[in-house]
Structures are given as structure tokens and as C-alpha cells.
Amino acid sequence: MAWPNPFRKKDENTRTAWGYTFQLTEEHLTPEQTNPLKFSYDTLAEEALDRLNAISPPATTALPRNSPRHLEKRALDGSGIDAAPPAPKRDLYLLLRDNAATDEKVGQLWKHANTVPEWVDWRQIARGQEVFYRYGGASLTGLAYQSLLGGMGASRVVETLARTGGFSTKVARHRLFETTQYILEITRSIDDIKPGGAGFASSLRVRLLHAAVRQRIMKLAQQRPEYYNVQKWGIPINDLDCIATIGTFSATLFWLSLPRQGIWLREQEIIDCLSMWRYIAYLQGKLRRLRVSRFR
């Protein structure tokens, strides 16, 4: 735990949560403001995904690839090792890119992602990436044990993960590796995060993946209302969940994880890192409801 400030003055606006003490201000959202966010979500990504599914329908069954179990099953069922390999999985980013010019809804999502907001300062984002690698070991430790695993303990996140097999040993390990790879891609270099870069592409894949998961759960919930309680948990991967995710991967790291490891970032380092995560939030469609104010 970070060392407490013995000189901090406490009043009726002082709050302490998960070992962190702060002052409640007018810029903090109230429960009345956050509750509706459980029922709003990234509709643009879902509409674009519908069009991509129409253009290139997904496979009805997902076969394992490059797996000894897959080869063993093919041998046992008589298909033979020399049989034709299964078709490769769709790459939603390539589908999005290749159909942006010919489909209106797909083009809207592609245009949004490739339109760099005026507040983006590439030099500042590059400094944020450098800060991440400066404290790379401690950052990955904090993200793994507090942001990722800690986030998997949040009630609404649990409800979504449980319905996508997210708590099985194989899926949880794979998700941990995928998330780590994604973080490395968006922090590796400024060119990787710019339009066309590896981190840029992965951000759009994540955005479309979230839309696909949301659609799948909602479709099953319509068929069997007891499968998922929308009124209680909200729309899967809703705006409030997305805001919380960005917070656990940025603010939680700066003000909880790193201080608990003896690392206190300078104010400018925090501002630079926040600028990086703000752009990531934009690419993933999370800035529609995310209020960004000055650092204090």
C-alpha cells in the first residue's frame, strides 16, 4: 500500500477506496449519472460488425488450429492428418479496412478511427510510451495482478466473462497473454499507435471483438431471459464498464499499483501517460461518454 500523507486534511468530501484517499469534486460522476451508462454502448461498432458479418459471414463452428488435440481428433475420426486444414479465422480489422470504401456503415467506423482528434499530441503520447517502458516490469506487474486480475473480480465483468468461458484455465491464460501482447503493441512506438500501425489495428480488433461478445450475450438473453439479467447488470461491455476499464489500466496503475511498489510518477509523466490512454480510449470507442478534464 502507498504511504499515507500525514498532512492531508480530511473533510466531508474526503473519500477512501481500495487504499487510495481523494477529494470528491463536482467533476466526479454521481450514481444518478453513472447508472444510465450501464445501458448505453458502442452502437457504431455493432452496426459496422453487422455489415461485416453480411459481407463475410463468420463460421458456424470454431475449429482449433495448430493444436496437437486437433490433429489427434482428425486421426481418430478418420479424416486423416493429410486432410485439408481448417479455414483461417476472419481478421475483422482487414475486413474493416478493405470494405470501408464500399460500405457506408463500415466506412463510418473506419473514418472515425482514422480521424485523429485535434487534442492528440504525438510527442506527448510518445513520452507516455517511454514512461511505460521506463518502469516496464513494475507496470506489467501492476497491470497483471491489479488491473487485469482485479478487474476480473468486478461484478458486472464477472457476469460477462462467465458467459464467454473467461474463467476456464485455458481461456484465462490465453486472455492474459493476449492482453499483454496488446499492451506491448500500443506502447512499443509512436508509429505502432498511429493509423495503420500494429497497435492501431489491434485496438480496432478489440473494439469489434467487444461488439461481437455483446451481440452474442444479448441474443442468448433474448432467447432465454434467465441467461443474463440485463436490468441488473446492464448491457454487456457497456459505457460504464469501458470507462472503468480505461481507469484500471491508467489511473489505477499511476496512483495505486506503482506507489505500492515504491514508484511515484512525476506529474508530467502521469499527464503524458494519460494522453496515451485517452487516445486508446478514443480508438476503442470509449470516449463518447468519457469526460476528460485537466489533471489535478
Topology:
Elements (H helix, E strand, L loop, with lengths): L13 E4 L2 E4 L7 H4 L8 H13 L12 H9 L15 H8 L4 H11 L7 H13 L1 H16 L3 H8 L6 H19 L2 H4 L4 H26 L6 H4 L5 H11 L1 H10 L6 H17 L13
Antiparallel strand pairs: 1-2
Helix pairs in contact: 2-5, 2-11, 6-15, 7-14, 9-11
Q: Could you characterize the architecture of this molecule?
A:
This protein has 296 residues and is an all-alpha fold. It is 58% helix and 3% strand. It is built from 15 helices and 2 strands. It has a two-stranded antiparallel ribbon with strand order 1-2. Strand 1 (14-17) and strand 2 (20-23) form a beta hairpin. The longest helix is centred in the last third of the chain and has 26 residues, at 198-223. The protein is globular.
- Measured as a percent range, the helix fraction is 55-70%
Enumerate how many helices there are, as a single number.
15
- Runs in which pLDDT lies below 50 for 5 or more consecutive residues are 61-81
| Biggest sheet features | 2 strands, antiparallel
Give the percentage of residues in beta strands.
under 5%
* N-to-C CA distance: 22 Å
**What Rg do the Cα atoms give?**
21 Å
Strand ordering within the main sheet: 1-2
Indicate the overall shape: globular
- What's the count of strands? 2
Global structural class: mainly alpha
Q: Helices and strands, in N-to-C order?
A: EEHHHHHHHHHHHHHHH
- Could you tell me the mean pLDDT? 83
Please give a quick description of this structure:
With 296 residues, the protein is mostly helical.
Can you tag this structure with a few keywords?
single chain; 296 residues; mainly alpha; two-stranded antiparallel sheet; 2 strands
